[in-house]
Amino acid sequence: MQKGQIQFEYEIYNSIEELLPEDKVLLEQARNVTSIAYAPYSKFLVGAAAMLENGAVVKGTNQENASYPVGICAERTLLGAAAMTHTNVPIITMAIAYNNLTGKSDVPVSPCGMCRQSLSEYENRTGKPIRLILSGMEGKIFIIENTGNLLPFSFSGDHLLGL
Ligand code: THU
């Protein structure tokens, strides 16, 4: 018997002022678009902004539905928009923020499992890791160099092909 182990490092910042200028701008954009999220049911407004390899910035917000499972997260709204408007262009960095109208917004957001799978597919599809900036409207900020770190043992197209 052998044992495997997976661990990864991430960066922790105490405030947006500590970020690199380009990261600060991207996070500000993510925070700003929380105001146009459509989340009348959860009142948890999520905004995402991504810097693409070609310099374009693509944004997304969560889009809820009265039939709750129909809703879509900000990250996947963004990925769909990026795939349509900048097909096959890698995403270098994605900032994600939220404004919780019923509570505090000072703990970094953590993408849901479905979004981790979608982010992983996008990384595989474009061949480049997506760097993540995770935050609320204030408080600590986490930076993760590679979204794949958030989904160890991920299922991929290789499994379907038997590779
Ligand atoms: N949500 C996101 O958009 N992204 C996340 O990373 C976490 C959750 C949305 C889904 C739903 O509209 C609301 O936040 C509450 O779960």
Structural description of this entry:
The structure is a single chain. With 163 residues, this protein is of the alpha+beta class. It has a single domain, classed as 3-Layer(aba) Sandwich (Cytidine Deaminase, domain 2). The chain is built from 4 helices and 6 strands. The chain has a 6-stranded mixed β-sheet. A hairpin with a 6-residue loop joins strand 5 (131-134) and strand 6 (141-144). Tetrahydrodeoxyuridine is lined by residues 39, 42, 44, 46, 62, 64, 71, 73-75, 109, 111-112, 115. Tetrahydrodeoxyuridine binds at residues 39, 42, 44, 46, 62, 64, 71, 73-75, 109, 111-112, 115.
Q: How many alpha or pi helices?
A: 4
Number of strands: 6
Largest sheet: 6 strands, mixed
Rg from C-alpha positions? Answer: 16 Å
Structural class: alpha+beta
What's the CATH first level?
Alpha Beta
CATH H level, superfamily name: Cytidine Deaminase, domain 2
Model regions low in confidence, pLDDT < 50 over at least 5 residues? none
| Range of strand content | 15-25%
The general outline is: globular
Give helix and strand order, one letter per element, not per position. EHEEHEHEEH
Number of domains: 1
CATH architecture heading: 3-Layer(aba) Sandwich
Overall mean confidence score, pLDDT: 96
How much helical structure, as a percent, in the residues? 25-40%
Give the neighbour order of strands across the main sheet. 1-6-5-4-2-3
- In the CATH hierarchy, the third-tier topology is known as Cytidine Deaminase, domain 2
- Kindly report how far apart the N and C termini lie: 24 Å
